[in-house]
Amino acid sequence: MDVTIYHNPACGTSTNTLALIRHAGIEPTVIEYLKAPPDRATLRGLISRAGMKVHDALRQKGTPYAELGLGPDMPEDILLDAMMAHPILINRPLVVTPKGVKLCRPSDMVLDLLPEEPLPDFIKDDGEPALRDTAVTGDDAGLLAALAVADLPTYDLSEPGRAFFAFRSLFGELLGYGGFELYGEEVFLRSLVVLPERRGAGVGKAIVARLARRAFDLGGRRLWLLTTTAVPFFETIKFKHVDRADAPASILATRQAQGLCPSLAAVLTRPIYL
């Protein structure tokens, strides 16, 4: 398989993505885009083929994004001009294979572009396992059993507007489940459970990152959740506690906020980071 990665060796996500490609037995063409940036037409084409808007492909952290006054409402030509003048604004890594183009954040999103075959498990340099996800329905027996063991709500899983996934290691071991409800840009995370024997190994953090990206690709931009027991965990991955009254109406109207979760459940939120 021919694979090309637009790579920044100083970026942990980019180096993990490159390592995953090689882990799959593929030696890609590596383009260090800060040294050899793509031309304007190539960059626009890559972003379009990835199914993204130009702003979605902009890197904000550690770049002149703010000082240049860039924003999501600016014309795409102006954003492209900025990316041409400042290649550090190009988010990374962009990966191209015969299966498509993707901005691989988190790094294991690259698995969507590689052959679908079991691989030895892979641990990223931050200690998280690389995951594969598979969509499941709300009546999936494994999902129901895992939620019951974790004492999480199951009454509304088959109602419209929910998306659920099973998460496995690269070799195929089931690690956990998670899902979300999408309300425009607001994403209500729910039904997140790591199987007991795999807790404490970075699986929960990895699942949240995968769910956030799946929601982002559908237009979601901010995560919300309710929890009575896991506030410390979510605070470690940059969620902030907010008063229930400050949550959007769409989140307060969810079945969990309306009664499936106790009224004392904490409300946590954070933007989706790419």
From TrEMBL:
Stretches assigned to the N-acetyltransferase domain: 109-273
GO molecular function, one term: acyltransferase activity, transferring groups other than amino-acyl groups
Assigned EC number: 1.20.4.1
Alphabetized Pfam families for the sequence: Acetyltransf_1, ArsC
InterPro entries: Acyl_CoA_acyltransferase, Arsenate_reductase, Arsenate_reductase-like, GNAT_dom, Thioredoxin-like_sf
CDD domains reported for this sequence: ArsC_ArsC, NAT_SF
GO annotation terms (biological process): response to arsenic-containing substance
Family: Belongs to the ArsC family.
Protein name (record): Arsenate reductase
Organism of derivation: Pleomorphomonas carboxyditropha
